[in-house]
């Protein structure tokens, strides 16, 4: 007798000569019909996996997402409740944002900090981004492995120093003369040789509006350029030597080789690093700025160029800040960080569209 | 034509060597200066004659640091924070990254988003500070009144490190996991006996990142631990506090004269020498492990993307 080959979902009954549904298949059909039940089943089966997630989720919830709840303070009046509990404050609407933009006393400070944030970020990108790429290209020229390793060890080192140590060294090396009681710092002396005015040197170059930004950028390069070159160097040495040879045979000089061989090969790395850099752009190194900010007495006043949104918010929310300082500071930071998020997502989207390289 | 090519390459190479040598020397110079300034006399420092080797050497500043009790208490705090902070962060990061690396994890994209969103948007300093105050209060109410624990548990999160670990775990071939599962290994055994040994390099890199950021951390410890509890400070806070109180470099000129006069009356060495001695002490552990951690540098930065 002719027999169907369908053992997996039907069962052939010899005695009656008929087919009936296999019991296994009934279970399978049931599971397919009710996907939520299946979900519960896998959840139950992999419970250990979810248990492993718990500590991380908890930590991130408590100390990354709870502060986001604290952000609601920017819509609330901090004087109306218990300072520790933001939910006890009464709503104040957009009053604090309005104050940031229009208040005669506060808004100049806000706009100054806002502008400085962007300028600091822009300079950081303008100088801080190409420098490691150039260093990586230079490292590629060093043929001796030993010489290159020694150089690399030297240039990576500053990255591992703390902000406190970097700013302490900066303050000491650029120190003023304390009314002629001591000589200026050794790097300040170099600046003097290049024509910095004596009265600016006397008050400490870090605290002058003319030199603060240059010093900030220089120390930033000193700290990060070497270490950041690692990833670009890895991309540069991955370029096959035959590509160079082919370009040389075609008569390409060094610049042409750079333009047509090296740059296209490392482009995707450059784009990824650029997106990452933009991601941290507006959270400009507030720790370092905080430590370099003058206290405003006598000549140690570099607020006009150094103050950024985070340091301003920190100052407002502390003692001696304006009334409602905590909400004002929160509002300022909220704006700053929202713009930062738009920047990173925008950069990512543009990179995706233009070159198929994206980070997120 | 051939000669021209060679010449442009030669010029480029000369420029490269020159700039690299200068930059490498500049990177090391401030540290050399720090050592020589720590051991130079007050008058040599004030007249600016210290350039590279100690002038008119003295060891009193360094001795004063060695005898400074609070400095060493804070130094041990930093060791404590670095050790426990790294273990804690590495622990939950490895567990979380392992779970996230599994394709069968339900709502995997949602969990990833939960993590990556913190890289795009952060609440900012003021909300974080208020939140830490809450945390400290809650900790105090359950009997943990030492603020060191707030610093250890609540700070030093880094989503990039978790992504790094996740990507490394994803690179482990699934056949090995299946083999272990058939042999009867549990989830935790698979993690500790298969995944962790196979991702040793990445884990070392991530541990290094967590450790360095702990060793160097300043701002939050300074904000959260008040000066009345200076015995709980990490050493970075102590160094900055010393600079603010005892030296002229970060203070206003008005206070400067008073500070200078007082210091010069009581001490034969410069306050800056003390700062430099402390800086040297704080850098030594990093310099000591530096040769061993170098090989991990390149690994850590080749993260290859956050994409899901």
Structural features:
heterodimer; A: 360 residues; mainly alpha; two-stranded antiparallel sheet; 17 helices; 4 strands; 3% strand; flat; B: 308 residues; MetI-like fold; 0% strand; globular
Entry summary:
Chain A has 360 residues and is mainly alpha-helical.
Q: Any overview of this molecule?
A:
The complex is a heterodimer of chains A (360) and B (308). Chain A contains 17 helices and four strands. Chain A has helices at residues 23-33, 35-45, 47-70, 95-102, 107-128, 130-141, 145-156, 163-173, 186-193, 198-202, 212-237, 241-249, 254-279, 286-292, 303-306, 309-317, 325-355, and strands spanning 10-13, 18-21, 76-77, 90-91. Chain A is flat, with a radius of gyration of 31 Å. Helix content of chain A is 66%, strand content 3%. In chain A, the strands form two sheets. Chain A has a two-stranded antiparallel ribbon. In chain A, strands 3-4 form a two-stranded antiparallel sheet. Chain B is mostly helical and 308 residues long. Among the domains of chain B are: 7-47; 76-230 and 288-305, MetI-like (MetI-like fold, Orthogonal Bundle). Chain B is built from 16 helices and no strands. Chain B has helices at 2-38, 42-47, 60-67, 69-100, 108-120, 125-141, 148-154, 159-170, 174-182, 187-198, 200-216, 219-224, 235-246, 253-266, 271-293, 297-301. In chain B, helix 9 packs antiparallel against helix 10 and helix 13 (235-246) runs antiparallel to helix 15. The interface between A and B is large, with 108 and 113 residues.
């Amino acid at each position: 007798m002719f027999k169907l080959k369908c053992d997996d979902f039907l069962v052939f009954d010899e005695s009656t000569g008929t087919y009936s549904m296999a019991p296994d298949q009934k279970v399978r059909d049931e599971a397919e019909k009710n996907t939520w039940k299946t979900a519960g089943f896998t959840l139950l089966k992999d419970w250990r996996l979810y248990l492993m997630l718990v500590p991380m989720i908890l930590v991130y919830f408590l100390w990354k997402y709870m502060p986001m709840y604290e952000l609601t303070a920017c819509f609330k009046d901090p004087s109306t409740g218990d300072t520790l509990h933001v939910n006890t404050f009464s709503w104040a609407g957009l009053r604090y944002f309005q104050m940031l933009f229009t208040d005669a006393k506060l808004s100049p400070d806000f706009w100054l900090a806002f502008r400085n944030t962007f300028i600091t970020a822009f300079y950081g990108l303008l100088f801080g981004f190409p420098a490691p790429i150039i260093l990586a290209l230079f490292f590629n020229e060093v043929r001796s492995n030993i010489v290159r390793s020694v150089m690399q060890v030297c240039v990576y080192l500053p990255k591992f120093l703390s902000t406190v140590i970097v700013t302490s060294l900066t303050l000491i090396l650029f120190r003023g003369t304390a009314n002629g009681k001591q000589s200026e710092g050794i790097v300040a002396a170099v600046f003097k040789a290049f024509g910095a005015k004596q009265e600016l040197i006397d008050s400490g170059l870090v605290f002058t509006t003319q030199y603060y930004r240059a010093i900030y950028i220089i120390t930033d390069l000193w700290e990060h350029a070497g270490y950041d070159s690692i990833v670009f160097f890895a991309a540069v040495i991955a370029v096959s030597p035959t590509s160079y040879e082919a370009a040389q045979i075609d008569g390409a000089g060094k610049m042409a080789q750079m333009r047509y061989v090296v740059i296209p090969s490392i482009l995707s790395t450059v784009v990824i690093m650029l997106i990452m850099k933009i991601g941290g752009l507006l959270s400009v190194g507030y720790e370092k700025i905080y430590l370099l900010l003058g206290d405003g007495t006598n000549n140690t006043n570099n607020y006009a160029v150094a103050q950024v949104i985070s340091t301003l918010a920190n100052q407002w929310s502390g003692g001696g800040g304006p009334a409602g300082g905590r909400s004002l500071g929160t509002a300022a930071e909220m704006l700053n960080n929202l713009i930062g998020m738009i920047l990173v997502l925008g950069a990512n989207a543009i990179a995706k569209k233009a070159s198929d390289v994206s980070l997120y | 034509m051939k000669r021209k090519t060679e010449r442009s390459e030669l010029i480029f190479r000369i420029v490269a060597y020159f700039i690299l040598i200068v930059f490498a020397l500049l990177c090391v110079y401030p540290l050399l200066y720090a050592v020589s300034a720590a051991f130079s006399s007050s008058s040599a420092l004030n007249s600016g004659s210290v350039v590279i080797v100690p002038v008119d050497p003295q060891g009193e500043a360094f001795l004063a640091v060695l005898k400074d009790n609070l400095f060493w208490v804070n130094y041990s705090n930093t060791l404590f924070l670095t050790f426990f902070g790294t273990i804690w962060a590495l622990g939950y990061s490895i567990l979380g990254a392992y779970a996230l690396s599994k394709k069968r994890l339900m709502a995997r994209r949602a969990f990833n988003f939960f993590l990556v969103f913190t890289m795009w948007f952060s609440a900012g300093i003021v909300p974080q500070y208020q939140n830490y105050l809450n945390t400290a209060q809650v900790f105090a109410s359950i009997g943990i009144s030492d603020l060191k624990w707030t610093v250890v548990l609540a700070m030093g999160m880094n989503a990039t490190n978790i992504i790094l670990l996740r990507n490394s775990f994803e690179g482990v071939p699934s056949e090995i996991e299946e083999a272990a599962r058939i042999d009867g290994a549990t989830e935790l055994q698979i993690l500790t006996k298969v995944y962790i040994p196979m991702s040793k390099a990445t884990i070392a890199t991530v541990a290094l990142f967590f450790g360095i950021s702990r060793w160097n951390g300043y701002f939050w410890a300074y904000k959260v631990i008040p000066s009345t509890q200076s015995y709980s400070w990490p050493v970075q806070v102590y160094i900055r506090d010393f600079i603010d109180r005892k030296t002229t470099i970060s203070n206003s000129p008005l206070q400067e004269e008073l500070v200078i006069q007082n210091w010069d009356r009581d001490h034969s060495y410069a306050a800056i020498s003390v700062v430099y001695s402390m800086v040297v002490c704080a850098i030594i552990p990093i310099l000591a492990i530096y040769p061993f951690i170098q090989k991990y540098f390149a690994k850590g930065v080749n993260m290859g993307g956050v994409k899901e």
